[in-house]
Amino acid sequence: MKNFVQFEHVKKTYQMGDVQIHALQDATFTVGEGELCVIVGPSGAGKTTLLNILGGMDTLTSGRILLGGEEISKYSAKKLTAYRRHDVGFVFQFYNLVPNLTALENVELAAQICKDPLDAADVLKSVGLEDRMANFPAQLSGGEQQRVAIARALAKNPKLLLCDEPTGALDYSTGKAILKLLQDMSREKGMTVIIITHNSALTAMADRVIRVKNGMVVDQQINETPISVEEIEW
Question: CA-based, 20 to 30 A from 234: which of 61, 150, 198, 200?
Answer without folding.
Answer: 150
